[in-house]
Amino acid sequence: MKVQDGCDYFCSFCTIPLARGKSRSNSVAETINVAREIEAKNINEVVLTGVNTGDFGAGTDENFYMLVQALDELNIPRYRISSIEPNLLTNEIIEFSSKSEKFVPHFHIPLQSGSDNMLESMKRKYRTDLYRNRIETIKNLMPNCGIGVDVIVGYPGETDEEFQKTYDFINSLDISYLHVFTYSERPNTVAIKMDGVVPVEVRQERNKMLRILSEKKKRAFYESQLGSTRKVLWEAERDGDMMYGFTENYVKVKTPYSEDKINQFETVELTEIDRDGIVKIRSTQNEMAHA
What we know:
Blueprint: E1 2-4, H1 16-20, H2 28-39, E2 45-50, H3 64-71, E3 78-81, H4 91-99, E4 106-112, H5 116-121, H6 128-141, E5 146-153, H7 160-172, E6 177-182, H8 200-225, E7 229-239, E8 242-247, E9 252-256, E10 265-273, E11 279-287
Parallel strand pairs: 1-2, 2-3, 4-5, 5-6
Antiparallel strand pairs: 7-8, 7-10, 8-9, 10-11
Helix pairs in contact: 2-3, 4-6
């Protein structure tokens, strides 16, 4: 469910503000009307998306936290917030999500670099101390929360030392997985004119290092969930004889395909990690979730 479009941030590597225009969104009331149409279709999970999702209500007296509160009143079983900037993921939103039965314990929070020098060069609106505070606040209130992180490697000026800062910073965080992007030049950006261009082969090697770190983080997170009971929402996609779903905290699980399970919740015990990094389960209870 797209709740916002455009961006006012003008990060030095990004062309989105030029392509998508200024940050804008409908009112809370108008957005709730759209959500009611979704509610009537017996859809069990809604992912809130946008170009800069947390900037909902920019230029008005409304904000994303107000939208979250209003959506929580509807009869939609599960909400998942897509990528949200750390400076816009307020303590209010985190605390509300920790108490909500509908907003799941899963956040995807862009970092881009673990070096304050790089964050300043990228024109990001936060520094590593704020980012660490967000992660620690989430984990304090929701110890089992899944947390995804975006990071860019090979940005101009990223020396070996600056990259090591990023690697060490991410390694120190209690997060669940990474989305690793290799910097590539984009026309009409500030970054394309910068000195300190990182050779492509170095960019690729750094990408590989962080992808390996991501696998370690994901494995550790999945292992921490073994033996716990979670609610899975099964998806329609079929892979041979298997189907997949996600727990509320974004652990991917699989089960033998059954058309009857599609768009249904099932309470399961997470029992074993598959060789593909997917968790095997033991069913404990079926729950029909259609209205």
